[in-house]
Amino acid sequence: MTDLWLLRHGQTDWNLTGRWQGQAPHAPGLNDMGRAQTLGLQNQLKDINFSAIYSSDLLRARQTAELIAESLGLIVTLEPRLREINLGVWEGMLSSDVEVQYPQELAERARDPFHTRAPRGESPSDMAERVVAAVNDIAKEHADESVIIISHGVSLAIIICHAQGFPLDEVYEHVPENAKPYRVEWK
Q: Dihedral angle at the C-alpha atoms of 146, 151, 154, 158, nearest 10 degrees?
């Protein structure tokens, strides 16, 4: 068993404005609040003996991981399989614009959240395979240890559902808040 401490990256300006980030290469890094949230985590995590920190390679997660790693004296291992869901054409769009321009796709997503993908994107079902494989590899490398994983809302929700035995159709109900630790055991 591996003790996983899951952290969603700190806040970005796109989180604040309701812009869909996904894997957009032009998505912003942490804003001032995101950096403050992350620095606030340092005290919560300092007394735990972590063996490693793994992070998505996307900027907002990487920045969060680097701030945490520095305070714990660890080196961040980047793991691209921990990336957020690919939201295709929705990446960079405001939620309100997605609602207006893609009502049928959003209705299908509400009906079948685990299998529906954004146009030219991936579904949680698609990404679950890569995310679970990454966590299995991390757990194998760090059996009986405590590890931090810094990633994104849907990626972490898949890990939470898998670890806690929640139905994956509920993935969007388990998206953690920015910069709030969530602990699970991975077997």
A: -20
* C-alpha span between 166 and 162 (Å, rounded): 7
Q: pLDDT (tens digit, 9 = 90+) per residue, 127-184?
A: 999 999 999 999 999 999 999 999 999 999 999 999 999 999 999 999 999 999 999 9
Cβ-contact 121, 31 below 8 angstroms: no
DSSP character at residue 175? P
For 187, counting Cβ atoms within 10 Å of its Cβ (0-12 exposed, 13-18 middle, 19+ buried), the class is exposed
Count how many Cα atoms sit within 13 Å of the Cα of residue 105 in the half-sphere of its side chain.
18
Say how far apart CA 171 and CA 26 lie, in whole Å: 26
Residue 35, token pair as written in the block: 């950096």
Distance CA 74, CA 54 (A): 10
**Residues 133, 121, 20, 22, CA torsion sign:** positive
- Per-residue pLDDT of 17-27, as tens digits, reads 999 999 999 99
* CA 78/CA 42 separation, integer angstroms: 20
CA 31/CA 86 separation, integer angstroms = 22
CA–chain centroid gap for 148, Å, is 12
